[in-house]
Amino acid sequence: MKIEILFPEFCNIYGDYGNVIYLKACLPDAEFIETSLNDEPKFITEDIDLVYMGSMTEKVQEKIIKKLMPYKEIIKQKIEDNKAFLLTGNSFEVFGNYIEEDNKNKIEGLGIIDIYSERKMFDRYNSIFVGDFEGIEIIGFRDQFALQYGNNADTYFAKAIRGDGLNKSSKLEGVKIKNFIGTSILGPILVLNPIFTKYYLRNILGIENAEIAYEQDAIEAYEKRLSEFKDPKRTF
Amino acid sequence: MKLRFWLAFYIAKFGQAFLKLLRKNATYFPGKVAIKICPEFLKYIDRPKKIIAVTGTNGKTTVCNMINDILIDNNYNVLNNRLGSNINSGIASALLQHSNFFNKTKKDLAVFEVDERSSILIYKYIKPDYLVCTNLFRDSIKRNANTDFIVDVINAELPKDTVVLANADDLISCSLGKENPKIYYGIDKLDTDVKETTNIIKDIKTCPVCDEKLKYEYARYHHIGKAYCPNCGFKSPESNFLVKHIDKKRREIIVKETKKSYKYSMLSDSIFNIYNELSAIAILRTIGLSATQINNSIKKMKIVETRLSEEEINGKKVITHLSKGQNPVAASRVFDYVQSVEGNKSVILITDDCDDAKHSSENLTWLYDADFELLNKENIKQIIIGGVRANDLYLRFLLAGIPKEKLIKIEDELETVNMLKCEEVEKIFILHDIYKFDVASKLKELLRKKLNTSEGEKE
């Protein structure tokens, strides 16, 4: 099992490294490759089982788009070939058509997924999220400057039970195309969602009988959080 | 607008006097009302001739208190917002409180602690002569987002002629006020420095000019250290105030200026507190205080108990230390300090966000930015986690490699003391969030009882 972490020097601003810590604990035999922005991503030329990229600052989004643009068609093909990508926080915005800034300037995205983002630097969106992913309740934190727009009716990641989807008028969060998952949920989604993580390892990464680290402790923490997230008296 | 100002001024002024009569804290509300009535209130309220603003992710309250105390000790006529908030309403309240009924200030100098996120609302109207920045790291995810954002927010309204006093060892602080006059302070290479830090987060890893990975002449923690770019020659600036020597035994530091070096008493031996003290020395020297004046005042000071306290109870040292929740660097610095202290020790951790615990569910992303791994030491015998987030912290400690047998979790924070095995430790740390000081004090009281009874000794 080879896992590539893209651009960790930039894409690790909201606890995203928690996913790497947890994957390392769950998959002690896996090989983890950290690729910096000045290097060529390994997944372009090598057989990588999972490509992970976390949140970044808004300024960095443009650097990442510039870096990945030459590989756009290869990435599309990799998705088509069922390669697993996991993108958390605002990293999946760079795969959309464009990001519109406060001043209406449009930053061209990779155009791999059919969504776009509208960024408002002085109207930060903070929310907790509970959603349904194939019968599993996913929880997460969302703190973002941009919201997404577009039709993800057939390609959403999770259906909101509490909180919003792509934007305040949507109940469909993120994007899932084959084994490509992009979600606005920030940071350590895998640690915070042990049931999902087990499913992810077994059904998306295809590791038969995969077990997760500290399963009971992780589930206990998850269940407490889930009950809080679903408590109508609690606000965001 | 002027009419609106006067209306706001008198309503807030009378409100302030009324609250004072009721012996209520009048440090926030009057300013809030004034700005509500007159959004440009800060533009018109009279202010002292000289203004010092202090900002930064960590240490700004400590530094502000130090600057104020030293100035007051040297008979300066100074106003501050230390009892109020560090946002625009707190500053409005402080100015209001020290102005007479004709909007004339009674003070010569103001020292304001300024919340980074609120800078844009403050510097638009209040033009500081000096801006002291302690450091800039990632902070509360909801409010402060990321350091790129915070730098832009501070720079947005910062007047071009404000002199910026920045930490030379922090390249993010150094990026404030690109064209502004600058004074730098820093700490010279230490024996404990390394070539590359192993902290989970470094908020700047690449050269701001060419994006090449930064290298360090010496690295201290996170992105703090003397950096350079191997590609384009960019490097950390030289310090105008440089700590050349730290003598922990004599509790002294030597600060080198352009022509001469001066000795000062050291308030605390933790590096982040030495940076705090140094930043205060730098601004006070800059505005004309002599090293002797500053040092004489420092000798009379101690760090306020809400931040740090030490007490010897029945042969054990009990240390309470602020460990701001949702602030991964502040937590990591404290963990580093705890692990660096010699001897066997136990740690009680109470860092829940009180407000989120009641009304929401705390954002936990910071747990995976903070270096809990630092507490994975043989001489840390027990870690007791209290609060509603105990399960989450417990899992984080497990993932940091800390054995289960050292960990205890319990939701009732006051019960943590009962779980403590005091026998094999010499030191007990109570690490608490800023709003958990009361709980930390109660824990200390319970610990006092426990340690002073034979029962406690037998455990």
Please tag this protein with its features.
heterodimer; A: about 240 residues; Rossmann fold; six-stranded mixed sheet; four-stranded mixed sheet; 6 helices; B: about 450 residues; alpha/beta; Protein-Tyrosine Phosphatase, Chain A; nine-stranded mixed sheet; about 35% helix; disordered C terminus
Characterise this structure.
The complex is a heterodimer of chains A (236) and B (459). Chain A has helices spanning 17-26, 58-68, 72-80, 189-192, 194-204, 215-230; strands at 2-6, 31-35, 50-53, 84-88, 98-100, 106-108, 116-119, 125-133, 136-144, 146-149, 158-162, 172-173, 175-177, 180-183. Chain A starts with a strand and ends in a 6-residue tail after the last helix. In chain A, strand 8 (125-133) and strand 9 (136-144) form a beta hairpin. The longest helix of chain A has 16 residues, at 215-230. Chain A has a 6-stranded mixed beta sheet, with no helix packed on it. Chain A has a 4-stranded mixed beta sheet with strand order 6-5-7-10, with no helix packed on it. A 4-stranded antiparallel beta sheet of chain A has the order 9-8-11-12, with helices on one face. By secondary structure, chain A is an alpha/beta fold. Chain A has 6 helices and 14 strands. By secondary structure, chain B is of the alpha/beta class. Chain B has 2 domains: 2-299, Mur-like, catalytic domain (UDP-N-acetylmuramoyl-L-alanine:D-glutamate ligase); 309-458, Mur ligase, C-terminal domain (Protein-Tyrosine Phosphatase, Chain A), CATH 3.90.190. Chain B is built from 17 helices and 17 strands. In chain B, the strands form 3 sheets. Chain B has a 9-stranded mixed beta sheet, sandwiched between helices. Chain B has a 6-stranded mixed beta sheet with strand order 12-13-17-14-15-16, with helices on both faces. Chain B is globular, with a radius of gyration of 23 Å. The termini of chain B are far apart. Chain A binds chain B through residues 9-10, 12-18, 21-22, 25, 36-38, 57-60, 63, 121, 124, 126, 128, 141, 143, 145, 186-188, 191-192, 213-214, 217-218, 220-221, 224-225, 228-229, 234-236, and chain B through 138, 141-143, 145-149, 152, 200-203, 205-206, 211-213, 359-361, 363-369, 388, 391-392, 394-395, 398-399.
